Each structure stands twice: as C-alpha cells, then as structure tokens.
Amino acid sequence: MIQNSKFVPTCNLNPVLSCGNVINAPGDKLLGLPYPLYGLPLFPVLIGAGVGMLAGAIYKRWYWITFQVLVTLGTIGAYYLLLKSVYQIHSLCPFCLSVDVVTTVLFWYTTLYNLDTKMISPRSAKAKVAYKWIRKHHLDLLVLWFLIVTGLLLKHFWYYYGKHL
Q1: What is the C-alpha separation between 127 and 29, in angstroms, rounded?
Q2: What Rg, from alpha-carbon coordinates, does the chain have?
Q3: Cβ atoms within 10 A of the Cβ of 131, count?
C-alpha cells in the first residue's frame, strides 16, 4: 500500500470488514513501532512452546508465569486494538479478528492450564469453588464470550449489516 496507493487488499470485503481502513488509520504506532511488530514475533514463540510440549518438554514454573504474563498482555493488546478499530476507525480487519480469537483462546486455556498444574493457585475457598465451576464450564464460557463479542460487534455495525440481511 505504501508503494501503490491504489492497491486494494483482498481482505477488503465491505465497508465494515476492511483491512485497508485499519492499515491506513492514523496513530497505528506505539513507541514508534507499528502494532503488528509487537505481536508477530511472539507467534513463533507460541508455536515453539506448543511443539516443545508435543515433544514432551516440561517447562518450569518461571516459564509458565512469564508465558501467562505475555499471553495476558497480548490479549489486552488485541482487545485494545479491537476497541480502537470499532470506535475510532469504524472498520474491522478480518486478520485482526482472527488474532483476537487466537489470543482469547490462548489466554483462556493457558490460564486454566496454569491453574490445573498449580503454577497459579487460587488462595481463598471461594476462589477454589469458582475455579471448579469455571473448569467444569470452560467451553461454555468461552463460547458465551465469543457470542457476546459477536453480538456487540453486530449491534455496533448494524447500520450496515441490518440492511444486508
């Protein structure tokens, strides 16, 4: 897009689902670096961790705590950018939405894994009871979260989608 100002990305599906609008939005940097440069290098780390686990690697507690912190920061960052896309840019990037899904699932199951393996421990009796309930309904809660987010996005962009149904 820098080389050819008339280039239209294939992910420009309509006025709402439009990578071009998101890419060209002003203020897409943090500390002078574009947002993707913060997240993209971490995906190979995630893949490496997953491959290591499949190969039987056992990581130490410090690794899992660090991993939890990074996944949490990544999820916060992904939702910050989602909010910015919705309320400032008024467009959604399909690739960014897929990152939102991946980071949400990764955060959710990393947190549950760390609680299951006692890398993170609930301290109070109420927290332990809540965790047992959450663990029992982990998939239901994740699906509910995605339904809520999808519903809010549809509500916000209903001006476009309502007339196209």
Answers
A1: 38
A2: 19
A3: 16
